[in-house]
Amino acid sequence: MRNGRCDWSIPAMVPYQGHYRKAVRYIESDGPKATIARVRLSSDLPARPHAAIYLDHAATVPILPEVRAVVAEAMACWANPSSVHAAGRAARAALEDARGRVAAALGWSGAVIFTGSATEALALGWGAGKGAHQFASAVEHTAVLRHAGESIIAVDSEGLVDPDGLPRADLVAVQHVNNETGIIQPLDRIAAGVQAGGGLLLADCAQSAGKVPLPPADLIAIAGHKLGAPPGIGALLVRDLALLAPSGGQERGYRPGTENLPYILGLVTALEADHDWLAGAATLRGWLEGQLRELGLEVIAADVARVPTLGAYRLPGTAATTLLIRCDAAGIAISAGSACASGSISPSHVMRAMGLGAATAREVFRVSIGRETTRADLEALLAVVRSVVTR
Fold it and tell me: Cys bridge to 217: 29, 92, 203, 280, which one at CB 3.0-4.6 A?
């Protein structure tokens, strides 16, 4: 803390006289808004201001102001919901009310189990497969692929699972919306095929919840921080609790650990927030993609259904990391694939599963927009892309 302000130092790379130099970016937060205040090169060159433009909402969404307020207020409700005294009963009442509101906000008629993340929810859901035959699509998040091993379902060049080519399985895991490309899997048909064979469908809906209607899956994982709630809260939606084996003392015996009531109330608030901005997001992305095409970029999976907030693009002949560094220096946040794997030197497993070669896969970057994104933000991104294209 300094003069009532919180300061974090974040290492960055910035251009100077044709070279990239180590720098420290100081982020100063004063109240609810955080802004990049200055970038200082390690050689103590004068700082220059940077405007923060956040285009990485698929990684995490800024916490909504109304969520901040609810979480702060809920800190006063600190009693354990499992306690039988009056304070505990009040916390339990708030917890169960939140459970019902989550289901209502998502149009879900089954059970809701609160977890610490979508990753935890997916692990719980994967455990519902009672047999030895459990499969996951090749484009799943690593949170699922680590369980699937070699039991992988291939996808086509657009990243889609063929509903007519599914293996007979006890459980099949397929993302509703891919976190790198934004494509929407045909889960209505996939669910029908899996369930007709006596299996269960586990759907990772971290990127789709609150944006498109939920699929008819047996088990659904959601993540609060993709909606504007704090990191550290998620949920597993379960069609029938009989599908799960009890594994803990809380959450009706299906998840151990005292419930995080403030964050649960934050999740509810995020789900109930206004989502009218999504129509504007579709317009913005459409305009961006038109501009990128004019510059010679490729839109990944352009001809299939995608959520309006997310797109993947390839700049032929240029590694995505080059563009990321340029954007970061300009105060623009984008990514090269999943945030959980962006630090890896390996090419995206999603792009590889879609048939791209290793070098081509490394040329793909992701842009994901949110409720606060403006056309001016995208124009700033395009200015950086043009500088790379014409260099």
Answer: 203
Which is the catalytic residue, given 6, 77, 327, 340? 340
Range of the domain at 29: 1-42
Same domain, yes or no: 59 and 2: no
The residues, any chain, with a CB within 8 Å of residue 266's CB and separated by 6 or more, are 63, 67, 70, 71, 74, 224, 229, 230, 233
Q: What is the pTM of this model?
A: 0.85
Tokens of 235: 């949920």
> CA 241, 244, 250: angle at the middle one, nearest 5?
75
H/E stretch holding 388: helix 375-389
Query: In CATH, what number is assigned to the domain containing residue 355?
Result: 3.90.1150.10
> In this structure, are residues 311 and 139 in contact, taking their beta carbons and an 8 Å threshold?
no
pLDDT tier for residue 247 given thresholds of 50, 70 and 90: confident
Residues 3 and 48 in one domain: no
**Same domain assignment for residues 1 and 48:** no
Q: Which residues pair with 26 in a beta bridge?
A: 9, 38
Confidence at residue 338, expressed as pLDDT on a 0 to 100 scale: 59
User: Within a domain: residue 341?
Assistant: yes
Does some domain include residue 179? no
CA 185, CA 189: separation in Å to the nearest integer?
A: 9
pLDDT per position as a tens digit, 151-161: 999 999 999 99
Q: Is residue 362 part of a domain?
A: yes
* Number of compact structural domains in the chain: 2
To the query of whether residue 327 is one of the catalytic residues in this protein, the response is no
What single string gives the DSSP state of each residue in 86-100?
HHHHHHHHHHHHHHH
Query: Can you say how many angstroms the Cα of residue 280 is from the centroid of all Cα atoms in its chain?
Result: 20
**pLDDT tens-place string over residues 369-380:** 999 999 999 999
292 and 332 part of one domain: yes
